[in-house]
Amino acid sequence: MIRAPFPAVKKNIPAMLTDTDMLFRQAREGVGIFGQAKPFPHVLLPGMIKASCRVALCEGLRQWQVDPPPAGFYPQAGLPPVVNLLLWELSSSTLMRHFASLTGAPPLLPDPFWIGGGAKVWSSESMVQTSDEQFFLRHPETDLQHPIRLEIFVADDSQLNFPMELEADGQAATFYSVSSGTALISRSDNYRLILRSSAPHRWCSLTSYFYVNDRARILNGEEQFRAY
Fold first, then answer.
1. DSSP state letter for 108
2. Is 10 domain-assigned?
3. What are the residues whose beta carbons fall under 8 Å from the beta carbon of 176, sequence distance 6 or more?
4. SS3 for 110?
């Protein structure tokens, strides 16, 4: 009998964190919503994370935020297992197709190293995020443009929710009531999010960027990839 060199580590990790059925319905029914949304292109995805997975994901993000992997270290070697699973899902071709369909973007590419992204744990009742805080036009290693920003919000209590306000210069704000497991996809270069919660330490969020190959623009004298 051939034995494995290391004993299996038992982890209570769900088979799939994201609700791909919901993403498929959104992609099929929400054509055009992203580009028409105000005050800037965005789409809200309630329930992107399955209800049974939200508490485990919140705990994993909190652990990663407290003890992040060293800079430049491949995440699989340092992430909590549940966060590592989410990274794998966000890098899958299935989710890439859904996100491209939802936003009308060209075929998207993931970043499994999470450059510019990461986990946040709320520390106050109000948190303001703007594109200026994290903005970088291109990936520092691949030089690909990142047009799409995804942020996932989770809590250790599925009954909690919070108001979210989206702002952009010269346009009226848009307000949402957001619950645990919700994701927000937006353009990465034009946003202002104001998040409020009466229980900030019980909320976590994860930000990830997705890229397009806009480098090979000319083929046979014609532009093949247009910057998004």
1. P
2. no
3. 44, 163, 164, 165, 166
4. coil
